[in-house]
Every structure is written in C-alpha cells, then in structure tokens.
Design brief:
By secondary structure, the protein is of the alpha+beta class. It is 58% helix and 19% strand. Strand 4 and strand 5 form a beta hairpin. Helix 1 packs across helix 2 and helix 6 packs antiparallel against helix 7. The model has no long low-confidence stretch (mean pLDDT 87).
C-alpha cells in the first residue's frame, strides 16, 4: 500500500493544472478523500474482527482465516476515471467509483461467507449499495467470490461522512485460484489461441476448487452432527 508521501507525489504527477494553487488545492482534497477511505476500511475490518471474535466464543471456532485491506493507487483511480469519462474531481470520484477502499475476507467454509455477509448487513449503520454473487453465478473464467458495495458512516472530529467500501468474501480455495490466475495471466499479451486454451483449463480448475469447498463443507456438517448427537 502506498504511504502518504508517495500517494501525494503521484497525485501531483497526475494533475496537470496550469495554476500551482489549483494543484495544491486538489492534492489536499485528494489526500483528505483518501483519509476518509482509510477510515472506512478500518471500520469494516473492525466489524469483521468483532464478528470473528464473537463467533469464536459462541461456537469455539473462527469463521475468518484472514482479512486484507487496500486503497486503490492514484494511477488506478485515474485510469478508472478516464475509462468512465469522468472529471478528475473528488466529487466525481466519490459518486461514481465504489471500490477505492476494499476489504477482502477469507473464510474457511462456504457457509461462513453467507453467514458473515448476513451479520454485516444486519448492522444498522451498514447500508447495502450493491451485491454480486459470483459464487452462485461464477464469471466466465471461473472466478468465484461474493462482492458487496456497502456504505458506512465515519465519525470525524467535526462531522459524520458516509463512505463506500467494497467487500469481497471468499474461501481459501477461491483465493488460491484467484491468486494463481492473476499471476498467470495479468497484463500478459497472450495470443488469442493461448488465451482460449488457458481459459478452458482455468475454468476446469475453478470447478475443481469449488468441488473441494463443497466436500469440505459436507465433512464439517457430518462432524457437527456427530458432536450434537454425542452431546
């Protein structure tokens, strides 16, 4: 993740205003905006950590394997702004780009994904903006994950602001597949025939990964049913 000095320097290279005062003002407004997203990501991360701790007490296991957070780089923001044909302003960014702040939650089992999703959305300060279930409806390449765009309040010393955060929930197997697919194909100028051949194979691997998730879920249910009967 970029530190604040690198972030401001990169924004400076991306902003080509004629007036130094305009550049200074935009740099400051962008720095403030990034602080809002960092605060919102921290809020969501904390919510999941609290849920994990509470679940551990009541069920003697943790549904969350790990939590990763990220803030989009200025370059990625600029590319998305240009792709959408938007002005490079903080208002346009806030209103039209929903995934600047991101939280990825890696779960042990499929059921944990939907349980954690329900628990998050039941909280009265979380507003669901959009949901895409790529687990039940995988992408053509086999990608699986549950994506949420939520809006939460952050409380500053002089105001409350609503900020959007993208949340991704996936299993360990889904994360492993996504990492490997990214390493194999990201920003590689592969010929169409190679893309087609690897696409089919990657899709097969994704299906195998999903079968593993389903079987591990079944094993857990058998164990839990056995424990209930013995109790």
């Amino acid at each position: 993740m970029y530190d604040e000095n690198n972030r401001q320097q990169e924004f400076g290279r991306l902003l080509l205003e004629k007036s130094p005062q305009e550049v200074h003002e935009k740099l400051h407004s962008m720095a403030v905006l990034m602080t809002y997203y960092r605060c919102a990501v921290l809020e969501i991360e904390t919510k999941f950590k609290v849920l994990d701790a509470q679940f551990s007490l009541s069920h003697e296991r943790n549904p969350i394997e790990s939590i990763d957070t990220r803030i989009k780089s200025p370059e990625s923001i600029r590319e998305k702004v240009e792709r959408k044909g938007l002005p490079m302003t903080t208002q346009a960014i806030q209103e039209n780009i929903n995934d600047i702040g991101g939280v990825r939650v890696i779960c042990s089992f499929l059921d944990d994904i939907y349980m954690l999703c329900d628990c998050l959305l039941q909280q009265d300060d979380v507003r669901l903006i959009a949901i895409k279930d790529y687990i039940k409806n995988p992408k053509p390449n086999g990608y699986r994950s549950l994506h949420l765009i939520v809006e939460i309040p952050i409380f500053l010393y002089n105001e409350k602001r609503m900020v959007k955060v993208e949340v991704q929930l996936r299993t360990i197997a889904m994360q492993s597949w996504a990492n490997l697919e990214h390493r194999l194909r990201y920003k590689k100028n592969l010929p169409p025939e190679v893309l087609a051949r690897t696409a089919d194979t990657l899709n097969e691997c994704a299906k195998m990964s999903n079968e593993l998730d389903v079987k591990m879920q079944e094993i857990r249910r058998i164990i839990e049913d056995g424990q209930e009967q013995s109790d």
